[in-house]
């Protein structure tokens, strides 16, 4: 069953990876970020790129290295780190976002589910 959870987590991470890569287009970042200071604009984009890489790596190891994740000490540490990543995301969502907005609530539920899968 653990393998199934990791596969589901890998698929969800893959979808989130694609979603993050589309931020510039989906959220019209060239125009939307113009209202930010140059430093904040750069920070937003750099964090999105690095977050995308991280989530992409979560998808990759989940889909192509399940056995190692489940059978080695390092693999179990990586599983715990992935879960922690999403639990911290959930805490940050509650602190920094208005989770009464349906889209934000959906994100909160999604990251909690992904954290539980790992």
Q: Proportion of β residues?
A: under 5%
Largest sheet: none
Q: End-to-end distance, in Å? A: 12 Å
Radius of gyration, CA atoms, in whole angstroms? 16 Å
Molecular structure report:
The protein is an all-alpha fold and 118 residues long. α6 packs antiparallel against α7. The longest helix has 27 residues. Helix content is 86%, strand content 0%. The model has no long low-confidence stretch (mean pLDDT 95). It has seven helices and no strands.
Write the layout of secondary structure elements.
Elements: H1 2-21, H2 23-26, H3 29-32, H4 38-64, H5 66-71, H6 73-96, H7 102-117
Helix pairs in contact: 1-4, 6-7
Quick summary:
The protein is mostly helical and 118 residues long. The chain has helices spanning 2-21, 23-26, 29-32, 38-64, 66-71, 73-96, 102-117. The mean pLDDT is 95.
């Amino acid at each position: 069953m653990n393998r199934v959870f990791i596969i589901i987590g890998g698929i969800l991470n893959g979808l989130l990876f694609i979603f993050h890569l589309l931020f510039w287009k989906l959220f019209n970042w060239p125009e939307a970020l113009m209202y930010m200071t140059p430093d904040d604009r750069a920070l937003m984009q750099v964090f999105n790129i690095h977050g995308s890489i991280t989530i992409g790596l979560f998808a990759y190891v989940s889909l192509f290295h399940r056995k190692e994740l489940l059978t080695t000490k390092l693999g179990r540490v990586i599983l715990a780190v992935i879960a922690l990543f999403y639990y911290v995301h959930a805490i940050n969502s509650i602190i920094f976002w208005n989770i009464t907005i349906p889209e934000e609530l959906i994100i909160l539920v999604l990251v909690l589910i992904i954290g539980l899968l790992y």
